[in-house]
Amino acid sequence: MAIFPPEISEKGGKPLDTVVDFARSLSIWPVTMGLACCAIEMMATAAPRFDIARFGSEVFRASPRHADVMLVSGRVSHKMATIMRNVYDEMADPKWVISMGACASSGGIFNNYAIVQGCDHVVPVDIYLPGCPPRPEMLLGALLALRDHIKKDPLGKRREEAIRKAEAAALKAVPTSDLKGLMA
């Protein structure tokens, strides 16, 4: 009987990388950035009804140095943006971000000077979770999607190379302010 699931043996590549990626994907510890009403749904995910513990993420860390993933839940004000960036910078690499809810992803209904129109202006986001507020089941689905992403994430120098390629592609992309959409 095999200890690891079949995708470990089918992945190919370096066996140490596959084992490390598999272990990292099973223990995702979130740091909470509960900023508004989506935080209630995030807290409900840790309750016995939804049981986030079966995915190894039951320990919501108060210290960013002990966390792997940041759950940004709720609207991000400009005052909170600097604090959120400081928390992100204090997290150890590798780290991931889940943007939870319409307000965190795009500013939601708050299109004014006080709210950042998407937390991706402050931190790089790996998974966007839609809804107002998103259900706890959706957060569990996002954690499972993040788990699959982590299993395929490169390590070491290959990770640095992948980050450089992603940053170069982002710099070549057309800014959203220049996109006209269907109404142009």
Describe this structure in words.
With 184 residues, the chain is α/β, with parallel strands linked by helices. It has one domain (29-172): Rossmann fold, CATH 3.40.50. 41% of the residues lie in helices and 10% in strands. The chain contains 7 helices and 4 strands. It has a 4-stranded parallel beta sheet with strand order 1-2-3-4. Helix 2 (15-25) runs antiparallel to helix 6 and helix 3 (38-45) packs across helix 6. It is globular and about 50 Å long. The mean pLDDT is 79.
Main attributes of the structure:
NADH dehydrogenase (quinone) (non-electrogenic) activity; iron; 41% helix; single chain; four-stranded parallel beta sheet; membrane; 10% strand; 4 iron, 4 sulfur cluster binding; Rossmann fold; 184 residues; 4Fe-4S; alpha/beta; 7 helices
